[in-house]
Design a protein that fits this description.
With 260 residues, this protein is of the alpha/beta class. It has 8 helices and 9 strands. It has a 7-stranded parallel β-sheet with strand order 3-2-1-4-5-6-9, sandwiched between helices. A two-stranded parallel ribbon has the order 7-8. Helix 2 links the parallel strand 2 and strand 3 (58-62).
């Protein structure tokens, strides 16, 4: 997919790896000057160097999206931006449990990054975007923000919050030239999830087969497929798309494919 982003300045949070890295690569390949923001300084630097050597200028910045101070510093360093992708996110560590057994620390840790981080980063970047005369914001939600899942209460709540926060932002900012949309990925194959999908023999695990039975396409998505959806939303041609939630889930949320 090719779009014209020459001269655009883009900020991608959580850009060091996975979906964020694929988004940063896609934006750079289409002409944008990209700043990736990540809490992992070393991995961010490696990703930025790789992108710079292959497609165009990419700058690594270290920061915690839930920190007002960090994101204020990012905004000052970047200057006015045209594109913001709020991708940084985390999920439950270890075993998943029902809400009455859920760790308060995990709840706060996840909601602070996945929901507060979208608010704090947007709050820091939007003034410069308005100064520039408009722009595009894409928030990364999840199918878990659309169809509730069990045993992930903090993640589900945060990502559902991102869905309606996106719509609220679109209502507030559209008239000022800033279009705000979200992408809701389904099961996506990243370096971190490969072990969940594939056994040592290279075949899908039993749990993966059960999960994929709900997906009409019968496979996990790729990080590049998520990045292409983001690229569509930031393209100049998508000038009348505002407040949309684009699901990239192989049909998961469309319904069940099973015969009952």
């Amino acid at each position: 997919m090719r779009v014209e982003l020459g001269g655009k300045v883009a900020v991608v949070t959580g850009g060091a790896r996975g979906i964020g890295r694929a988004i940063a690569e896609a934006l750079s390949a289409n002409g944008a000057r990209v700043f990736i923001v990540d809490i992992d300084a070393d991995e961010a630097a490696r990703t930025a160097a790789k992108i710079t050597s292959s497609t165009g200028e990419c700058v690594a910045l270290t920061g915690d999206v839930s920190s007002l101070e960090d994101m204020a510093e990012v905004a000052e360093t970047v200057g006015p931006a045209d594109i913001l992708v709020n991708n940084a996110g985390i999920n439950t560590r270890g075993d998943r449990v029902p809400i009455h057994e859920y760790s308060v620390d995990d709840w706060r840790r996840i909601t602070q990054v996945d929901l507060d981080g979208v608010f704090i980063t947007s709050r820091a970047i939007i003034p410069g975007m308005l100064e520039r005369g408009g722009g595009r914001i894409v928030n990364i939600s999840s199918v878990a923000g659309i169809v509730p899942l069990r045993l992930q209460s903090a993640f589900v709540a945060a990502k559902a919050g991102v869905v309606n926060l996106t719509k609220s932002m679109a209502l507030e900012l559209g008239a000022q030239g800033i279009l705000v949309n979200a992408v809701a990925p389904g099961s996506t194959l990243t370096d971190g999830t490969k072990a969940l999908f594939y056994g040592e023999d290279g075949a899908y695990t039993e749990n993966a087969e059960s999960l994929l039975s709900h997906i009409p396409l019968g496979r996990p998505g790729t990080v590049e497929e998520i990045a292409h959806a983001v690229l569509f939303l930031v393209a100049p041609e998508s000038s009348y798309v505002n407040g949309a939630i684009v699901t990239v889930d192989g049909g998961w949320t469309a319904g069940y494919t099973r015969d009952w």
